[in-house]
């Protein structure tokens, strides 16, 4: 079985007709055995259904989708799971466990790529402690780079190729937030496939092996600007376990599909707790020194 997910920066892209990439998962015995990112070639709603059928896709997981596209997918024999959001890999895992339910056609002409978390709750999993460091880690590949909107495709000699690069990331005051040099291993990624934040991808797209460049990225080229709709306030009684949380702590909530997403406690009193689901790098200017080590 093959599962395709509308894909951008590790997450489920929220508008089927505008997606530039799909992440395709090969599944055997209900387990993912391999995955790859493929481009949509700029095709629109109807043609995208044909593209998926041509590649033998059995299931599509996406965010927003209109009735016309849903009909085209049904005609192409592709099962649709719509209304999903968050991490693409986690969505596929949830689907394979039978925990991902489609909302059907949910996109009209007012639909945008709004990643607000207004409908998210702790779900059945309650509020779990989360101690991981949300630094850029995997080369800043896990954010909603470029503000999560539809942008022109990145072009360059290295687009579509597997690249290995060393990098050091700093804030404007010179503080280092991440470095592949410190880990002793270059980062490997497919340039332009949405695995990296947009500004990083764009910088590598035209580099030559051995070249070192310094780039300064505005928030729109990195993790976007903070979304006020992603700041959530609940009554403590609504979130089992939240009475033990403290301001500044990072925890996981789970959405209506059981998919976890990280939030940070920003305020708390005897009755209410406020959680921020924005990426911690949202709104920040970032600086990178990038050294291209290899292009495959």
TrEMBL record:
GO terms for cellular component: cytoplasm. It is found in: Cytoplasm. It is an enzyme of class 5 (isomerase). One of its GO terms (biological process) is protein refolding. SUPFAM superfamilies: FKBP-like, Nitrogenase accessory factor-like. The keyword Nucleus does not apply. Keywords: Chaperone, Cytoplasm, Isomerase, Rotamase. Its EC number is 5.2.1.8. InterPro entries: Di-Nase_FeMo-co_biosynth (IPR003731), DiNase_FeMo-co_biosyn_sf (IPR036105), PPIase_dom_sf (IPR046357), PPIase_FKBP_dom (IPR001179). Its main location: cytoplasm. It catalyses: [protein]-peptidylproline (omega=180) = [protein]-peptidylproline (omega=0). It comes from the Bacteria. GO terms for molecular function: peptidyl-prolyl cis-trans isomerase activity. Belongs to the FKBP-type PPIase family. Also involved in hydrogenase metallocenter assembly, probably by participating in the nickel insertion step. This function in hydrogenase biosynthesis requires chaperone activity and the presence of the metal-binding domain, but not PPIase activity. This is Peptidyl-prolyl cis-trans isomerase.
